[in-house]
Design brief:
This protein is of the alpha/beta class and 357 residues long. The chain has helices at residues 14-32, 45-51, 57-65, 88-98, 122-125, 166-181, 197-210, 223-232, 244-258, 296-308, 313-328, 346-356, and strands at residues 3-10, 36-40, 68-73, 103-109, 129-135, 147-150, 156-159, 186-191, 217-222, 239-242, 265-269, 275-279, 331-332, 342-343. It contains 12 helices and 14 strands. A 10-stranded mixed β-sheet has the order 2-1-3-12-11-4-5-10-8-9, with helices on both faces. It has a two-stranded antiparallel ribbon with strand order 6-7. Strands 13-14 form a two-stranded parallel sheet. The structure holds nicotinamide-adenine-dinucleotide. It catalyses: (2R,3S)-3-isopropylmalate + NAD(+) = 4-methyl-2-oxopentanoate + CO2 + NADH.
């Protein structure tokens, strides 16, 4: 059955990078029997300019109807002074919230050809391939009660609540185990079970879910140790699963091990593996409209979409291998360029991936 994909290019470099991802998807439709239909719409500042809101209700409805959403990026100087309720980012937040995207998957992959881009020694990071699965809609970022109150002695006190229910932990654990099954079958669950009861329960629930995936080797690690191990020996990790706050911090740490923001994809999934896919970087207004941006993070996000929402693991692998070939050829956009390589534009990079496919 034909699957439908909603394309939301957004602002800044968004339209340039998504155009390259669409080029790749069209090629796979032509040559590999990929059965999808694509429709494009507005999000972020681009939607505000036309509709007065960063995400029109009709676009939200299309996102609900689609099998997957591929998004570029939102934001830019032009919309920075708008009222917070209609800023471009609100469009993204609405999509995440109303689509019920509770699982955020962020790969930190360092192609061996780009090892010199990392601030760590090449032998520590070359070939790095970690997937961080972060719970996105619960934990301390959303727990109630929260606020800042004034105590009887007049002193202010800030407070938040770190809370997870068993079902929330179970569903994110299943996403992580299923991802591990598609990879090297190693899962590290990150918690602070020695101090926080909520993560003591997290650990117990992960252990219970683990019984359903006997092939996956499970380890538990305290978050402080995980932060240290990511820098010391990052290649020990395959899939990591953790709560919202720890995941926020560790996924940024892991992505920076690779040193190349233009290469990092992400996926946010709901209960049925329907998802929204987007590069981890922003709209890069400083280089927008110049055909300079690196489209590979968006093309890799499209690969994740094929893997997780469209049931075409084979084509996801095909895209990843094509990108590796292009890097072998020494082709680089400005952000990942180094001595001896050939600098290409955003569209030339897309063309090179199509040729490698
Ligand atoms: P940014 O990621 O847009 O840019 C940071 C730096 O990285 C810039 O120098 C930029 O040129 C470069 N860069 C980013 N992506 C690149 C690519 N694909 N190829 C080459 N270079 C690339 O972050 P920022 O500058 O902090 O934010 C710019 C705008 O993006 C802001 O309006 C911000 O709110 C928005 N933003 C959006 C998202 C999103 O849509 N998910 C995420 C982060 C920031």
């Amino acid at each position: 059955m034909t699957k439908s994909v909603l394309i939301l290019p957004g602002d800044g470099i968004g339209p340039e990078i998504t155009a390259e991802a669409v080029k790749i998807l069209n090629k796979l439709v032509e040559t590999d029997g990929l059965d999808i239909s694509m429709e494009e719409d507005l999000v972020g500042g681009a939607a505000y300019d036309v509709h007065g809101v960063p995400l029109a209700d009709a676009t939200m409805e299309k996102a609900h109807q689609a099998d997957a959403v591929l998004l570029g990026a939102v934001g830019g100087y032009k919309w920075e002074s708008l009222d917070i309720s209609v800023r471009p980012e609100k469009g993204l937040l609405r999509l995440r919230k109303e689509m019920g995207l509770f699982a955020n998957l962020r790969p930190a992959v360092l192609y061996p050809q780009l090892a010199s881009a990392s601030t760590l020694k090449p032998e520590i990071v070359a070939g790095l391939d970690i997937l961080i699965v972060r719970e996105l809609t619960g934990g301390i970022y959303f727990g109630q009660p929260r606020g800042i109150r004034v105590l009887d002695n007049g002193e202010r006190q800030g407070y938040n609540t770190y809370v997870y229910s068993e079902s929330e932990v179970k569903r994110i654990a299943h996403v992580a185990f299923q991802a591990a099954m598609k990879r090297n079958k190693k899962l590290t669950s990150v918690d602070k079970a020695n101090v926080l009861e909520v993560t003591e329960m997290w650990r117990e629930v992960v252990e219970e879910v683990a019984k359903e995936y006997p092939e996956v080797e499970v380890k538990h690690m305290y978050v402080d140790n995980a932060a240290m191990q990511l820098v010391l020996n990052p290649k020990q990790f395959d899939v990591m699963v953790t709560g919202n706050m720890f995941g926020d911090i560790l996924s940024d740490e892991a992505s920076m091990l690779t040193g190349s923001i233009g290469m990092l994809a992400s996926a946010s999934l709901d209960e049925n593996n329907k998802g929204m896919y987007e590069p981890s970087h922003g709209s890069a207004p400083d280089i927008a409209g110049q055909n300079k941006a690196n489209p590979l993070a968006t093309i890799l996000s499209a690969a994740m979409m094929l893997r997780y929402s469209l049931g075409r693991e084979d084509l996801a692998v095909k895209i990843e291998e094509a990108i590796s070939k292009v890097l072998d050829q020494g082709l680089r956009t400005g952000d990942i360029w180094s001595e001896g390589c050939t600098q290409v534009t955003c569209s030339e990079m897309g063309d090179a991936v199509v040729a490698a496919l």
